[in-house]
Each structure stands twice: as C-alpha cells, then as structure tokens.
Amino acid sequence: MAMPSHLWVNGLWERINDEIWKQNKTKAGIAERCGFERKLLNGDCNISLTNLAKLCKELNVSADYLLFGK
C-alpha cells in the first residue's frame, strides 16, 4: 500500500540518493557507519529524526538540504 503523499517530504529520497552517488559512497557502508539497517535507505519508509541526523553527519550535508533542497 502506498503512503499518502502528505507523509513524505517531496524529493527527500532523491536528494539522499543523489548525495550518496555524488560522494561515491555505498548505502551499505553508510548504514553501517550510521548504525542502522541498509533497508532504511531504500526510501520506502519514513526516517526518524535521529537517523536523519546521523545521515546528515555522515554525508556532511544539512537537514534543510535533504528535507527541502536548500
């Protein structure tokens, strides 16, 4: 079942995937360093604030950029 669009921040997972690709990192490596399961980075679930913060630190980007593209 698809999630209602209001539960997703438009473009969040696209920006995450683009940043991972630009930095030539792997999702498995990022997940391991951040301490969560690789499947969290599939983009088919909501990410917790704690895990978003870990991801921002690992990718060296702001939460504003990942959430809003700014």
Which helices and strands occur, and which strands form pairs?
Layout: H1 12-22, H2 27-34, H3 49-59, H4 63-68
Domain HTH cro/C1-type: 39-66
GO molecular function, one term: DNA binding
Organism: Parablautia intestinalis
Descriptive labels:
51% helix; Lambda_DNA-bd_dom_sf; Cro/C1-type_HTH; 0% strand; globular; DNA binding; XRE family transcriptional regulator
Write up what this structure looks like.
The N and C termini lie far apart (30 Å). The protein is globular. The longest helix has 11 residues. With 70 residues, the chain is an all-alpha fold. It contains four helices and no strands. The chain has a domain of 48 residues: Orthogonal Bundle (434 Repressor (Amino-terminal Domain)). The model has no long low-confidence stretch (mean pLDDT 89). α2 crosses α3.
